[in-house]
Write a structure and sequence with these properties.
By secondary structure, the chain is an alpha/beta fold. Helix content is about 45%, strand content about 15%. A hairpin with a 5-residue loop joins β1 and β2.
Length: about 240
């Protein structure tokens, strides 16, 4: 992954984990998203709403120094940036930013605060499903595919792409595409029929790290051709 987006910006700061992260001020955050002050704050407000809806509000404030009343962002760490990109996945800058951070380290930091918060509150009713932790929710959000890309769009000008008209399923984690929805969007735009489950009619399964066991079994059962991340990237010249 390329890390040059974060060269010569931010300062190193220590988290409760004892590990360091990068902290950016508002001007650096605004420049990173190449947007106006107003739209930069809109990104933060949308992220706060997203985190509030998914039990991630305390982790949000652990990484984002934001005054909600004054609508003022003082600073944000890379973990906070990860949440911003997650909540604003359609922003054109979200994917390159996500590709430029050390994803595994960032997620481990987020999980630390999420699990810590969950343990503090598990005696109450803040989690309506005791079998679903905030950590699970974060993982789910990374892997969720928007309904916008589920219904195929075959009415496109160029029908020559490898995936045009093909039923495709995505499973696992991908280094270049931490937000699975980005892959779904790429497939949708070339006329692929993106599915969330495997059937006999599935043409290809894009398989990443830690792919779901049940999907791997289905791949074997139906003898479906698989495509890894490298091949997927090559097919899109990425």
């Amino acid at each position: 992954m390329e890390k040059e987006l974060f060269e010569n910006i931010g300062i190193s700061t220590e988290l409760e984990t004892g590990l360091n992260t990068l902290e950016l001020d508002f001007a650096e955050f605004q420049a990173l998203f190449n947007t106006t002050e107003e739209k930069a704050i809109d990104l933060i407000k949308r992220t706060l709403q997203f985190c509030g809806s998914n039990g991630l509000k305390k982790p949000f404030y652990a990484f984002v120094d934001y005054n909600e009343g004054k609508e003022k962002l003082n600073s944000i760490t890379q973990e906070g940036l990860f949440l911003v990109c997650l909540a604003n996945e359609r922003n054109e800058n979200s994917v390159p930013i996500m590709q430029s951070i050390y994803r595994d380290i960032i997620i481990s930091h987020l999980k630390y605060y999420i699990v810590k918060n969950y343990k503090k509150n598990r005696g109450g009713n803040h989690n309506p499903n005791p079998n679903l932790t905030e950590e699970d929710i974060l993982t789910f959000k990374l892997q969720k595919i928007s309904s916008d890309y589920i219904d195929p769009n075959f009415d496109i000008e160029d029908k020559s792409h490898f995936f045009y008209g093909k039923k495709v399923v995505i499973t696992g984690n991908f280094a270049k595409f931490p937000i699975r929805n980005e892959m779904a969007k790429m497939l949708y735009e070339v006329g692929a029929d993106v599915n969330t489950s495997i059937s006999k009619k599935t043409d290809y399964v894009i398989v990443g790290e830690n792919a779901g066991w049940s999907k791997l079994e289905k791949i074997k059962e139906f003898n479906i051709e698989t495509i890894d991340e490298q091949r997927f990237s090559e097919l899109f010249n990425r």
